[in-house]
Fold each of these.
Amino acid sequence: MNAEQLGLGLTAQEIAFVRKSLGREPNETEWSIIDAEWSEHSSYKSSRGLLKLFPTTGKRVVLGPGYDAGVVDVGDGYVVTLHIESHNHPSAVDPYGGASTGIGGVLRDILSVASRPIALVDILRFGLIEKSGHSRWLLKNVVRGIADYGNCVGVPTVAGEIEFDDSFERNCLVDVACVGLGRKEDLILGEAKAPGDVLVLIGGSTGRDGIKGATFASKNLKEDAASERSSVQVPDPFMKKLLLDSILEIIANRGDVRGMKDLGGGGLSTALSEVASKGGTGVDVELKRVRLREDDMSPTEIMISESQERMLLVLPPGTDGGKGVISVLEKYGVPHSVIGKVTSTPKLVLRWDGRVVADLPASLVTDAPLIDWPYSKPASPRVAPRPAARRDEPSLDDALLALLSSPNIASKRWVYQQYDHEVGVRTVVKPGQADAAVLRLPNGRFLAIKGDGNSRHAALDPYAGAAGCVAEACRNVVAVGAEPIALVDHLQSGDPSDPGVYWAFRENLRGMADYCKAFGLPVVGGKVSFYNEDSATGRAIKPSPIALVVGLVSAEANIRTMGFKREGDSVVVVGETMLEMAGSELSSRFPKSVSLPSQSPRVDAGQDLKTCQAVLHLIQKGLVDAVHDCSSGGLGVALAEMAISGALGAKVDLSLAPSTCRRTLETAFSESHGRFVVSGRDAAAITSSLRDARVPHAVVGKVGGSSLSLSAGRSPVATVGVSSMRSKWEGAIPELMD
Amino acid sequence: MRVAVIRFPGSNCDLDMMAALRMIKGVEPDLVWHEDVSLGREDYGAVILPGGFAFADRLRAGAIAANSPAMATVKRLADRGLPVLGVCNGFQILVESGLLPGALLRNSTLKFVCKWTHVRVENTRTPFTSGLREGQVLSMPIAHGEGRFFLPHAELAQLERDGLVAFRYCDASGRPTLSSNPTGTLHNIAGVCNKAGNVVGLMPHPERAVEALLSPLGHPDGAVVLSSILVKSGGRRA
């Protein structure tokens, strides 16, 4: 069969390119290998050129993008490893299996650089659960999938974010990030450098599940997407746990593992070609030695199967290759088989009973030609100017309670209580207590972790919206007392062949890259996911860039949570509120209360950096006890959450807050970046420190009582009991889901 | 005192338990692989079955581990009066192996639940509660999907009469209320012991509550539970 008859995902140009470089017609197995490895999912062919815009170096960066995980130095010989993955397409057709295997994949990435996974973070996007039973079904099963897998392997899920928007109705997004901890001297890379070394495939057997998974993820969802369930892999967290424990024991025993690579998208095709290409070597593999779940699998199926729970080890030759590696695998009952060896010719040679069934240059397989898609800014729909309809304007109390019960803002306890967030005994700041999770590190420092995105903002202004995700994640990490040290990103959009979609993708990437540069934040890894649209409706998701930021807290005394701590403390707003209502939660709940045209939040990385440093300074000086970032739902929601969390009310005069808004409703709910709310005993010391830092700020009120009373000057605008806010905020999601 | 912490394939609180025990002066913990036959020969003062998903909880939580050779040894040691503690999955294994009464069913919410709870100490005559006061309220986290203790009515009444309930979920002031019961467990039971008192199982995780830093209330209550094994008086020790 030739390429045209095989139903490959390759374009006509790519097919021609392969024939020309090889000087012959590849056979079916070879075409399938190239097809898997050249899928968008594995090759980044539509984004690789642009990803160079990201700043990827810094004093703490040990390993940047291009490996299984980014590696950051956290001092005293310890490193933190980071990786993010999505399992969007699989989760859309099989939410439980798709979400589980997403966790499985990201854990293997962390493990394959020889670090212990210590935390999971999940960032999820669904349709409107108030309206859609399908979205409730997706949410319920995605959460159950993450819980069952993460809980079983004993890695705590410590943080996350969930957003609900109609554009995710059919294409839910399931992003999972994993943070690992290791020693710098123990790091292992996914390379095969020494000819003669042996390739050992360990873990689960190879079956027909997940065949062409990478190809499935690299095209739009079809109307009968459910028929693609066979493209979803089968999760086995127990085998993952055994893999995890055995590899960690091998590392602890100082086994001689020369290279390690997980088998994810593209299966053996990707793993073999990448270890060879990265190591500047070749591989010679006998596919008959691969342990199979089904006897009658063809060489092609074996090469592109994405069966889970498999890893590839590169070990020195000889019976005791790797100094006891095999005996540890046997102790844990982890199956293993030597499938081939590393060679000095940079080729991927695959055999079936000795007969060569594929013979390809490793670099041809790994280096798919880049695609430069055409792009153009879509014409923005003309918005007829319209003043806010005063008659339809909600009272501030009503608006506040409505926002607190919006699933986007409401407490996510229903979700995080299903995750074991304590296992590992590192979780110092737990889900719900603050803007980011805080884990203790073995060297006396603490690691803050948070992932953020805002697809409404990113759709309105792809550049500023994407930069805003980074801004928000940084603020969240700063709010717990940490200095941001590294980021992994995830860019998700629709079909890149649509010039408008590709333009927005480019803007997302530029926005994030520029912000990271200005903020001095290195990007150590990331992921791109295209084709998040379905051909039934032709609708793409809103572009959904995600930023996962980690930060370091220098000492226990500098950890902060968001709840008000003491009656009588002063409440201080840091940063200026601007009239930026577009894409806000208020405008989504009460569209008529916002005048048009309206602006979506802009970013100023330089000012944000100053503000973040000023807040960190307040924390380190011990001047503030409660810190909360201001994002979705603005100042109003931030104050309400601080009150709910601390079980203490406050009296606040919103007219005192630095703001360019004319109406109190706007000051309360605009979603401008660069803002925090803090509280502390000594208002004079706080304001003097902020004045020195040249950051706009104002003392707006005092903590106390059992309700949140908001006023504009002397006129009261809202008084809401803390307990009624709590019941709305905590009750909204359980009411929909249970 | 040397304490054996048994690691089954799928245990995931074993290292946390080891770390917690190491913080207790006078306790020397050993991590013992379930196939390690030395368990029966060494001079251990107590055996602990940590939490996790031993053998992936296939069939039923704890069912496969309960029938493993390691548990045959643990049964023999328990019959001789050696203190045995099962936490979470360890409790499930003890129930499945018949060392403790009852069954641990799926939570009434049908969901896994991870949260910090209050438990009241009901019985101080076991080696793992001898350092506690009766009625003392402890703060410890739970994390499980199958922790709803069940016994038929008459047997439950007998269990209560025999005083074999070791811990009960309660509110902050010590009242075992409906809202403080996280799983629908009968009589708010969070932990039980056998008639001899030397075998104890509980769903909350003491090993996750040994440091003020990790406890939302700042109480290292789990340390008091674990260090009870060193308390000479009170426990019915062989």
Note: The CA atoms of residues 153 and 186 of chain B lie 10 Å apart.
Amino acid sequence: MTVSQAAFKTAILDPAAAVPTGIVNPDGAAASKRFDVYRNNVAVSLSDALEAAFPVVRKLVGDEFFRAMAGVYLRKHPPKTPLMMFYGDAMPQFLGRFEPTKKFGYLPAIARIELAMRHAYHAKDVTPADANALTAVAPDALMSTKLKIAPATQTVTSDFPIHAIYLANTQADAPKPVMQPEAVMITRAGFDPQIHLINAAAASCIEALKKGQSLGQATATADTTLDLGVVLGLLLAQGAVTEIY
Amino acid sequence: MLDATTHPALPARPGVGYKAQHYSDIMEDSGPLGWLEIHAENYMGDGGRPLAQLRHLAERFPISVHGVGLSIGGEGNLDTDHLGRLKHLVSWLNPASFSEHLAWSTHDSHFFNDLLPLPYTAKTLSRVATHINQVQDTVGRRMLLENPSSYLAFAESTMSETDFLRELTQRTGCGLLLDVNNVFVSATNLKTSPQAYIDDFPLEAVGEIHLGGHDEDEDETGAPLLIDSHGKAVVDPVWALLDYTLAKSGPKPLLIEWDTDVPEWPVLADEISRADRALALITS
């Protein structure tokens, strides 16, 4: 009797499934509790990875609920690579569709922030452009100028006060969130990712710059809520611009 | 045959599985610590603190790169993306050693983050040998293959684990990583003798020895079921098995593995000192 890895895999992920025939204890008898060691190792290690990846989501939904939800998630979305530091990239979509969490509209954006923080932590090291270099650009050339943005730089936009919620769950004495749309930018100057409150227009502009659009293109459709000076000042101060060209 | 000529060898001294929280302790006072082991997958990001720390550590210590996700025992083809990431890490770091496990962890593009067992047959031997050859050819290095912890057996197995590993070294030229805690765990779980396993083991191929802690449980028949948890101190019978092994093998690089419920540095330093004494016992 050959035990295929497909049969092993199915039984690992489904606690109700029978242990594949051909797996035995030292006396040649069936070995279901021994097989359970693998079931437990897999579920615990993947749950632990999700807990480490989403501490704020976990705080928001509670430890017990998160553990149960992780059990559902890991069976629906087992890792696709051995890079556990990036496990959980389907969590925002999952939270938006999972029946018990879908009414909490801010959860997917909080999960996106936590993913972005992890990606920023492991992003490529860069040398920031000189923060004064932009002032050297002639005023009539400014709108055709492009900025190369550091790979750690990411934005998340939401109809919910995600910056305030994130802070309230990661910092002591953070103010109570007030219901309003918020956007954030994650940057990494040095080794520790930082989160900054921006607005949706700024997020849209930063995403356009990341795609290689010029300042003119990136601001073409912006309304009056975009303060380009503030956006550029923040990007440069955070070492998030690596080239001005 | 691929072999190491341009990188330092692991010294026959105590090493430890590196955890970021011990960075300052290790840099300030390393005591008898002679080398460090890292899990390859934790250093496959593009940059940031993990890689910066690793570069600093590598200036001070020989490094062993220990992969936990290649799935060498898998039925399917090796993940060439992952193999490429390993090649990249080994290329820039130029570690003293590179090792992986006799286990599988990926099936049908899904990774299970655990070391899953395989039966020992002519068919699996041939498959694993092919995978090891592919790894050594791609990474450009001789690798060490680690014996697993076993909780169960496969009725279809036709070879002993020691014969299986010996045959792999002969077919591929790979070396072996002997985990004496795994030997003790497997022997207890499968009701065999750990000393007999060491007697049968091709010790001449061993490039490194692992030591770790395990949890104790029972199966449904009341038989002991030890679980390789890497979350506790090494137990006395495993230290005794180490002494038994070193008396036969001579000095080897010894690694203390502690991956869950990781303690403060002084607790690990005690384990490192004990490993140092075990080495002193056979060299004195």
Note: The mean pLDDT of chain B is 96.
